[in-house]
Amino acid sequence: MLVYLRLLKESFGFAMNALTNNKLRTLLSLLGVTIGIFSIIAVLAAVDSLDRKITKDLSGLDKNTIYLMKFSFGPSNIPQWKREQFPNVKYDEYTYMKGAMTNTDQMAYQIFTRRESIKYDSKTVSDINIVPVSQEFIDIQGLEFEKGRFYNESEANSGASVIVLGNEIANSLFENSEPIGKNVRLYGKRFTVIGVLKKEGSGLFGDGNDTSAYIPVNFVRQLFGDNNTSLTNVIIFKPEKGVDMDAYKGEITQKLRNVRGLKAGEMDNFFINVFSGFTDLIDGILGQMNVVGWIISGFSLLVGGFGIANIMFVSVKERTNLIGIQKSLGAKNRFIMFQFLFEAIILSVFGGIIGLLLVWIISIILTKALDFEFILGVGNIVLGTGLAAAIGLISGILPAIAASKLDPVEAIRTGM
């Protein structure tokens, strides 16, 4: 064991000697490993960070939550021209389904509308995500409040001019003053602030609750009517736990087809989007990002491997005389081989560490600049180091074998 520790120490010395004596050559040789490790770990760290953010943002939603609307979350076999003819879901359909559906925990009605500006006195906050929803939405979404409350059933049904503001909007409009009870202007109307949400940070697509404002859906219905083509309506279902999802979707399909008078053989003119399908789509995209990252980075690692092999062959040639002396003094082939293998691994790991250091520095910069927590996990650090060591082992094995098979007399004579 002590022999191998001494061997590792000597190999480390040779590797550091190669770094100091041949700086440019070594730098160019390690560049491929550095870039390869940087590329792979950067992609994996980005995907891991994005996955954590997605999990955090969607933690308040049940994966079985269903969105009934005229659009599909994912790809569809139905031609686009046909999908464009699908009607919006109606509020009357929502009230009917609410009374007719079984095994349902909560059901809400939401309208997707354009972004607006909110004013308070001389201050204006623009590009606000307006979320008109019925009162049940809070039980589905699980909103958390810093101040105030969500609107109740009476306010929702009457279309009262009340509003719940995201944290960033409230801070921009009111700064240090109390927002609850104040009047803001939206759609040219006065709205009374009844709640402010807790700060969450940017959402999945950069549009979180901090920059959203919630108002009763019936206010928007009274303002724009039920047949406005610029709006998209959706009925949100939260089924009871343990429900057979296929049977539940079948019940939704049957009841809505009956309401719309669709005959047997006619295709459905709506989409039942299960939230788990959306998350599966995102997981698939993240998986593809991983694969692409590995493929691109693989080429860099291949180049890096050739660079390490090249520097090791040069190292063997430069130390031919020394190898001959070691073998003439009784050094075994295995000792010589391990000496060069350890040196190749140390050089490669050194390049990998530089790549990891670059990822760490960039992660700190991005976290501060983008308000997004970019995380370089321990698992990715271990993976990067292991990959670098593996590249060094594979790249150094041929030069090490070549060194171990040198004839001591020829090696000394060649070195002289």
UniProtKB/TrEMBL annotation:
The keyword Transmembrane applies. PANTHER family: ABC TRANSPORTER PERMEASE YTRF, MEMBRANE COMPONENT OF TRANSPORTER-RELATED. It is a multi-pass membrane protein. It is found in: Cell membrane. One of its GO terms (cellular component) is plasma membrane. Belongs to the ABC-4 integral membrane protein family. This is Putative ABC transport system permease protein. Residues 294-408 form the ABC3 transporter permease C-terminal domain. The lineage of its organism: Bacteria, Pseudomonadati, Bacteroidota, Flavobacteriia, Flavobacteriales. It comes from the Bacteria. Residues 26-254 form the MacB-like periplasmic core domain. Its main location: membrane. The chain crosses the membrane at residues 26-47, 292-314, 335-362, 374-398. The keyword Transmembrane applies. It holds the Pfam family MacB_PCD. Keywords: Cell membrane, Membrane, Transmembrane, Transmembrane helix.
